[in-house]
Fold this sequence. Notes:
Chain A is an alpha+beta fold. Chain A has 16 helices and 17 strands. Helix content of chain A is 39%, strand content 19%. In chain A, the strands form four sheets. In chain A, strands 1, 2, 6, 7, 8, 11, 12, 13, 14 and 15 form a ten-stranded mixed beta sheet that branches. A three-stranded antiparallel beta sheet of chain A has the order 5-4-16, with no helix packed on it. The longest helix of chain A is centred in the last third of the chain and has 23 residues, at 378-400. In chain B, 39% of the residues lie in helices and 13% in strands. Chain B has 18 helices and 13 strands. In chain B, helix 10 links the parallel strand 9 and strand 10 (307-311). Chain B is globular.
Amino acid sequence: MRKTLEEVMRTWEPVIGLEIHTEITATRTKMFCGCETAHGGEPNTRVCPVCLGMPGALPVPNEAAIEWTVLAGLATGCEIERVSQFHRKNYFYPDMPKNYQISQYDRPFCKEGQLTIEVGKEGIAQRLDRDQPGVVTPTEDGYETRIGITRIHLEEDTGKMVHVGGSEGRIAGATHSLVDYNRAGTPLMELVSEPDIRTPEEARRFVQKLRLIWLTLGISDGNLESGSMRVDANISLRPRGQAELGIRAEVKNMNSFKSLHDAVAYEIVRQAEILESGGAVAQETRHWDAGRKVTSSLRSKEEANDYRYFPEPDMVPFEFSDEFVASVVARLPELPDARKERFCADYGLPASDAAILSEDLELCAFYEEAAGALGAKLDTLAKPLANLIVNDLIGALNAAGQELSASKVTPAGAAALVMLADEGAISGKQAKEVFADMIETGADPAEIIESRGLKQVSDTGELAAVIDAICEANPDKVEQYRSGKTGLRGFFVGQVMRETHGQANPQVVNELLGEKLDG
Amino acid sequence: MAVAANPQDLMFKPATEISRLVCAREVSAREVVDAAYAHADACDAQVHAYNQRSDALAYAAADELDKKLAAGDKPGDGLPDSALVGAPVAFKDNMNLQGTRTTCSSRILSNYESAYDCTAVRRLLDAGTLPLGKLNMDEFAFGSSTENSAFGPTHNPWDLARVPGGSSGGSAAAVAAGLAPITLGSDTGGSIRQPGACCGVVALKPTYGRVSRYGCVAFASSLDQIGPFARTVRDAALALQVISGKDRYDATSVEAPVPDYSQALGADLKGLRVAVATDFLELEGLDPEVKADVLDAAERLTRMGAEVGEATLPSTQYGLAAYYIVGPAEASGNLARFDGIRYGLRAQDATDVLDLYMRSRAEGFGPETIRRVMIGTYVLSAGYYDAYYARAQKARTVIKQDFDRVFADYDLILTPTAPTPAFKLGEKTTDPLSMYLSDVFTIPVNLAGNTALHLPTKLSAAGLPLGVQLIGNYFDEANVFRAASALEQDYQFPYQTVPVNVLGA
């Protein structure tokens, strides 16, 4: 690749749509039978006649999975279809026990939703048309844009193939294949976005936002690496200013947010180079190789399958009553956007802090619990508390490569530290020291202060005596100071701190020094 | 004992009578199974109703029952509360029963051992019946003569040169030949009633959703329904009673309560409104004896107090065409799982997975199965769906409206079951369309989803069974049994004169 993303984006506008499959892990049982849903384990141990497609076995829909899907639709602004049904999608592949997948076709459960995504300063440069009126909405440090959702439907997952004898488990060069049906029949929610995404960063932000909503709902563990969430990206380019769409390629196998971003960026440059050299993009499915950081052709879409969809005759269509939809609406928790607004409104946090806190469920719960412990001081200390968490805590966790759940710092400890600093019991510098200890040991900040003897000295009498003694011992310095060498002030502060082992309240020291030297 | 010396004497008794003898300990359950197999030894070489006998299961069930009876248990007291305790039964070979193979009379499943039990089978066995084995059928239920079995045809016990009908030919022939007093079959377009007509036995297709389909290898999911064969209306009603009701393993089974069907038996026909479907009687190729038999049945019903009128079902003329789109379409999906990957026949030395699929299916499926899968695949293909499948579904709606219109004024519809008595083996094998016409009177009922029963009436001049079809409204099996029971008494069909009976003597 010779060109950079920024270069090609000047000429070409990418049009990106995502298909996101999410395993509904909340149901614990499969979509059409009672087998447990889980990852790993001995192959073919979580199976039964239904999910193995044994002769005569019939599917019975998992009502909880349908409710979760409706909840997902409500959380993403979708219309809930009152009459919906399953269809059979017919194609032969050994990972599909029945050689058809029970899916949805023209009557999915949810249609026509949208998500608003926020792009921060790190991704703003990719959106070249951001300053044109009406394209995106500017924010503090980036922009917001609305991404349409075409539909959300429910289907059953396939089993897993392991190709043996080739490279990296891929079919090329394999001598034989093994099939594990443990995953077959897991409820799988497919969300299809409108082709509203224009940059790799927007693609990443969309999936991050979606994952956060799924986690907030409790619908799935949302793990990209393990495949609980699987993202396919449809990407095409068109010359800027042209309405007509170009030929698209589909990219699969992005197992992390970074992979998603990098694969989309790679594909944009790849297609641009083909188009600029007078070639045509092939309509095909491509595989992202995270190691080599390239996409490669998996299969052509020109010989596209005819899936021969027809209504699943083993089930009757679903008719959702007003009561049913209302009962699912009642289950909706506070969603990330609302939470962020509340953090700004109730805690007075700047949007950037609110965004960071509300985009991580654990962090958000940590903050809310700590804020609760501030009691009457909430109004004044909510922001310093956010600073401590957003800057110090996250910084320390990142440095240690640690998850919040593994951290020894408790929400009550964080709140206590902020309050102790506020009361002047310790200096800001001491607070950092105490926090470092808390990260290390998880101990209560008051105990740390006690055991380290870090109590801040704010007693004016005690400090005045120390200052007097220093002045007596350094008459020449006092003389020099008074004759205009005010830069010596730092020397006196340093001496006081040395005498008090750093425990002197710097504010009080400054005041007393002023009185003594200037007065 | 006398019973064992003349197995066919016992085996031609109704299931309820065998059950009474067993429960009264006048004959042991083991002797019942002995008699059933002795009679089969004598005549099944000619009939070929069985694909597989389940001796071990039958004797185990019999010995357990005998032990309980010896200990003083009675039906409803230590034993199932059923009038079928101790009655031997057998199943069409598309119903799963652990301990048996479920082959669907296909090479592709010839080695397939059931991994679980079909709900209807389990329910019948839980009523205390004894499982004799699995019965021959047209491969995957595709056919009307049982000639499409990979294991050779079943012969009609009334004339071994003739077909028993199909696809549940083995189930019908077994009852007609006295191999079992009750068997189960499945009916997608007439596969219970048409062989019932050919073999001269009572044969019921229940309302769609009345009986769970779980464990019965699917042909067309929206049409299939399991139902009983018997030589008495009472046995059929009792069997339906036992196998009916909601099953949590079949999402299309219905919660509707199961009435006590025995209440309908022997009830008088006063106020029962019966329509003769006159347009059915005008079909070209309808055998005059069959037509006369329907009109005779109408007269008898009138004489017994029913209010008999005439009605037409004009839209049912689209039934055959709609059926041969919907049925194959669903079958093409349902049969996709037979691919040689997980179970069943797998072609050897395949070069890749596509080769494995194509060769396993080409070697494993018979010609009629291949024809139906290809038709079904075609009608669902892009560009053809609307012209075929969508229009066929519309035809179903119109046919259903025809029935609804008639049932607004009538309780039952009286029609022929099949256009002719049993035809000769090989007579229609080269002409699929003529074979398909065998089900012209039964198919509309599957498309609409309501219930119908074949009742044997008398023998034709050639000595072949004649009979009528009684079509009932949704979940109104009770009125069907009510009329069937009255006609049964009136006709006294000569079951015991079946020629194959002599073979067992």
